[in-house]
Design a protein that fits this description.
3-stranded antiparallel beta sheet, single chain, Tetrahydropterin Synthase, Chain A, 3 domains, alpha+beta
């Protein structure tokens, strides 16, 4: 049997990036044959990855690629089991390469990506890293001459966003890119789930209305006990519920209240618009939280995102409207497994 030296172990580790003890073990099994040892590591690396299939990959990184001319952008989420691996340079390069592959070749879905030649490259990289790693989702958006596109990836590389807006001209589209970068940063922070309140399902709005009102009522019980100012209990939570009849009744109630206060009717037109705007704001909390266009813009909270886009386009002498966006946040919606470390240690010590 050939002697396995420290230099051989070092060479194999350098070539494969596999753990030191694994390198030594396969070299012994291969009787010092470097090629055979490398093949054993590859096989076992893939086997190890397969054995981890029942584990939850909820950590990881987002990847982002955008064309120099802002005509196309890709975002991808690649998951790992641990945040530690997400900090590994090999994993970071894998995410970058995956994003570039998707951007360049536009696979239809994750299955198509893994079935391509790149799938083998991905599997080899996973085997080397030695942890369950998977591509969860990706999206590519494109823009023509009169469409503005821009995006943003957060400094932690866990949130990536693309924003697209249809414009009236090429000039406006080019000029709107800077604004869309800011809107993408807003989207990263404010977590909208849809573009507009018009996208909400009626049943969802109704369910949310009941739940939110009950939450505020319970909060008011505690505020009352503490003798603090109570929160306003809204009747509605979305613009989709504010029909012409509802708004007409709200205006009538405002005028009735002004009359009861003895306010001169000649000044009502100065008070009613502001009071009606407050009514709408109080009764559209779902829109403000979840619909991008209806959120208060973080750079100017006197405007909604839609109003900010309109203002920016008007300043350029044109018009623009956001038509599409995508926001990926690593691990979003994945139920993480919480391990009881003390129990694991105790179990390992038994016997």
């Amino acid at each position: 049997m050939a002697a396995v030296t420290a230099a051989m172990v070092k060479e194999l580790r350098s070539a494969t990036d596999a753990p030191m003890m694994d390198c030594k073990k396969v070299l012994v099994e291969a009787d010092g044959d470097m090629a055979k040892a490398t093949e054993l590591l590859k096989e076992r690396g893939i086997a190890k990855a397969a054995k981890k299939a029942d584990r939850v990959a909820a950590e990881g990184l987002a990847g982002f690629v955008i064309a120099d001319d802002f005509s196309k952008a890709t975002v991808v989420e690649v998951n790992s089991e641990t945040d530690f691996v997400a900090q590994n340079e090999g994993f970071q390069n894998l995410v970058k390469n995956t994003a570039k592959e998707i951007y360049d070749n536009q696979p239809a879905d994750v299955a198509a990506l893994m079935a391509s030649d790149f799938g083998s490259t991905f599997a080899s990289a996973v085997a080397k890293i030695g942890e369950k790693i998977e591509v969860r989702r990706f999206t590519t958006l494109t823009a023509d001459a009169t469409t503005a596109l821009n995006g943003y990836i957060h400094s932690n590389n866990r949130i990536a966003v693309i924003i697209v807006a249809k414009c009236d001209s090429e000039k406006t589209a080019e000029g709107m890119r800077a604004t869309l970068k800011q809107i993408a940063m807003h989207t990263s922070a404010m977590k909208p789930t849809t573009l507009s309140y018009k996208d909400f399902d009626d049943a969802y709005v109704q369910s949310e209305t009941i739940g939110r009102i009950e939450v505020i009522k319970k909060e008011n019980e505690e505020l009352s006990r503490l003798k603090k100012t109570l929160k306003n209990v809204p009747q509605y939570i979305s613009m989709s519920q504010l029909t012409e009849e509802v708004l007409a009744q709200a205006e009538a109630d405002i005028k009735a209240d002004l009359a009861a206060q003895g306010k001169p009717e000649k000044i009502w037109d100065k008070i009613v618009p502001g009071s009606l705007a407050r009514f709408i704001a109080d009764n559209t909390t779902l829109d403000q939280e979840q619909a991008l266009l209806d959120q208060n813009y973080v750079l100017d909270d006197k405007l909604t995102v839609a109003q900010a886009v309109d203002a920016a386009a008007k300043a350029l002498g044109g018009t623009a409207q956001i038509t599409e966006f995508v926001r990926l946040e690593v691990g979003e919606g994945i139920e993480k497994v919480v391990n009881d470390f003390a129990a694991e240690v105790a179990a390992a010590q038994v016997g």
